[in-house]
């Protein structure tokens, strides 16, 4: 039995003549936090969108639980990509109940998730009055409403203050013990280093480094070396 919940093999995505993701291969271990690092425009979001079926790769393969990915696997995948998809004129609880209805779940799951994301004290407050951090946590709550095996978070700390970042970090680390694997995309090296078990560094669509985080490694040097090396590969 494979220890990996998700693997990509030779994944490639082109837009006209531009290669955005170039022959990438990754292996994501079950019940871990995997940090996908790269500068803006490196291909992170495109890669994640292929994993959740928003985009179709030009070539390559995606395996979910050791078998070819299919749209049926989306029931086991939660995602927060770009802005949280929430209804601003509804409360947090109402938003979660809408998500429960879509999945055919009882409202008790909404109550459970409200506690998990630590918004129970503002459950009756309209989302339009939420801070950015509260909206992000609600977006994550909607993404985990169906108890996914894999949770994908694309730049979730963007726009957050230090307190919001710290709260989100604790929330993300709480998921693997609950049976959820997390892929966390970011361009902020220090944030990923504090929460991830393993990382992959992508630049110019090319994966230049993967592996467990070792405190002895100079991740900033590794990151910058890869970015500089790949910057001119297709110029």
TrEMBL record:
Hydrolase is among the record's keywords: no
Name of a matching Pfam family: ABC_tran
Spans through the membrane: none
Stored SMART domains: AAA
Highest taxon above the source species: Bacteria
InterPro entries xrefs: AAA+_ATPase (IPR003593), ABC_Gallidermin_ATP-bd (IPR022501), ABC_transporter-like_ATP-bd (IPR003439), P-loop_NTPase (IPR027417)
Keyword match Nucleotide-binding: yes
Single GO molecular function: ATP binding
Record family assignment: Belongs to the ABC transporter superfamily.
Family annotation (PANTHER family): ABC TRANSPORTER, ATP-BINDING PROTEIN
NCBIfam families, per the entry: galliderm_ABC
Protein name: ABC-2 type transport system ATP-binding protein
The organism of origin for this protein: Alkalibaculum bacchi
């Amino acid at each position: 039995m494979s220890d990996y919940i998700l693997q990509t093999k030779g994944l490639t995505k082109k837009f006209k003549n531009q290669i955005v993701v170039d022959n990438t291969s990754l292996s994501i271990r079950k019940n871990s936090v995997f940090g996908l690092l790269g500068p803006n425009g490196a291909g992170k979001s495109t890669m994640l969108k292929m994993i959740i079926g928003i985009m179709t790769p030009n070539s390559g393969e995606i395996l979910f639980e050791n078998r070819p990915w299919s749209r049926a696997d989306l029931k086991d995948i939660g995602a927060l990509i770009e802005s949280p998809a929430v209804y601003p004129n509804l409360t947090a609880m109402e938003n979660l109940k809408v998500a429960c209805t879509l999945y055919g779940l009882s409202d008790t799951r909404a109550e459970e998730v409200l506690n998990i994301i630590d918004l129970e004290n503002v459950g009756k407050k309209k989302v339009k009055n939420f801070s950015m951090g509260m909206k992000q946590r609600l977006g994550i709550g909607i993404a985990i409403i169906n108890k996914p095996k894999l949770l994908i978070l694309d730049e979730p700390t963007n726009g957050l203050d230090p307190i919001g970042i710290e709260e989100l970090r604790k929330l993300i680390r709480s998921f693997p013990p609950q049976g959820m694997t997390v892929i966390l995309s970011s361009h902020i090296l220090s944030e990923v280093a504090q929460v991830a078990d393993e990382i992959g560094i992508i630049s110019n669509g090319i994966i230049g480094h993967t592996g467990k985080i070792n405190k002895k490694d100079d991740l900033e040097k590794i990151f910058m070396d890869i970015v500089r090396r790949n910057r001119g590969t297709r110029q």
